């Protein structure tokens, strides 16, 4: 249907480059734009919080904001696989309440699209250990032993120390892949 109007007649070279990149790799471009958007929101929220005077006597009113969220497709399949492989139990702490267990990626979801659902790229960890693993406070050696970051201090170090050098209990059929553990230790772990 010809209306006589043309789209994109006044686009810049930068817009053309972004459009071309989007057409070649839409998932990465969407991920990167969402990451930058979240970074901007956090920076803006932080600046506005710093500018306000803190009045402990006043009552703060919570509000809500709608946001578009990127959801991982088939993440639940990955979780179900790890629950089965690890018999619904954290292989370090032996916690067996599935509400407290996370399917932890060794190489992060955002880094390796080919191994997102590979059960050998995962370890079933309790929520506390999952967070420590993601933040690089703990790692696992290629021999499957717990390694602690030198950045751990105080009671946190005391807690994790009781598990240092303990081996992960896992199914012989799906052990964590040693190359993935090495990647985590080299790129995420805080030595």
In short:
Helix content is 39%, strand content 8%.
Q: What is the H/E string?
A: HHHEEHEEHH
Q: What's the structural domain tally?
A: 2
Roughly what is the average pLDDT, rounded to an integer? 82
Multimeric state: single chain
Describe the structure.
Helix content is 39%, strand content 8%. It is mainly alpha-helical. It has two domains: 13-51; 75-187, no CATH class. The strands form two sheets. Strands 1-2 form a two-stranded antiparallel sheet. A two-stranded antiparallel ribbon has the order 3-4. Helix 1 packs across helix 2. The longest helix has 26 residues, at 26-51. The radius of gyration is 22 Å and the shape is globular.
Q: What are the key terms here?
A:
191 residues, mainly alpha, two-stranded antiparallel ribbon, 6 helices, globular
SSE order and pairing:
Elements: H1 13-24, H2 26-51, H3 75-85, E1 101-105, E2 122-126, H4 127-134, E3 138-140, E4 146-148, H5 154-161, H6 178-187
Antiparallel strand pairs: 1-2, 3-4
């Amino acid at each position: 249907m010809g209306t006589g109007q043309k789209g994109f007649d006044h686009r810049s070279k930068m817009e053309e480059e972004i459009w071309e990149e989007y057409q070649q790799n839409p998932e990465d471009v969407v991920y990167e734009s969402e990451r930058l958007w979240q970074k901007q929101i956090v920076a803006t929220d932080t600046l506005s919080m710093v500018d306000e005077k803190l009045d402990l006597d006043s009552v703060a009113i919570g509000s809500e904001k709608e946001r578009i969220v990127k959801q991982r497709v088939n993440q639940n399949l990955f979780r179900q696989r790890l629950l089965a492989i690890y018999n619904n139990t954290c292989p370090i702490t032996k916690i067996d309440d599935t509400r407290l267990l996370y399917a932890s990626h060794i190489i992060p979801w955002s880094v390796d699209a080919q191994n997102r659902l590979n059960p050998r790229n995962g370890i079933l960890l309790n929520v506390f250990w999952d967070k420590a693993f993601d933040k690089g406070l703990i790692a696992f050696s290629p021999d499957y032993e717990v390694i602690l970051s030198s950045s751990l201090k105080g009671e946190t170090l005391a807690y994790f120390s009781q598990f240092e050098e303990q081996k992960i209990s896992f199914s012989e059929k799906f052990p964590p892949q040693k190359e993935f553990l090495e990647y985590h230790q080299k790129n995420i772990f805080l030595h």
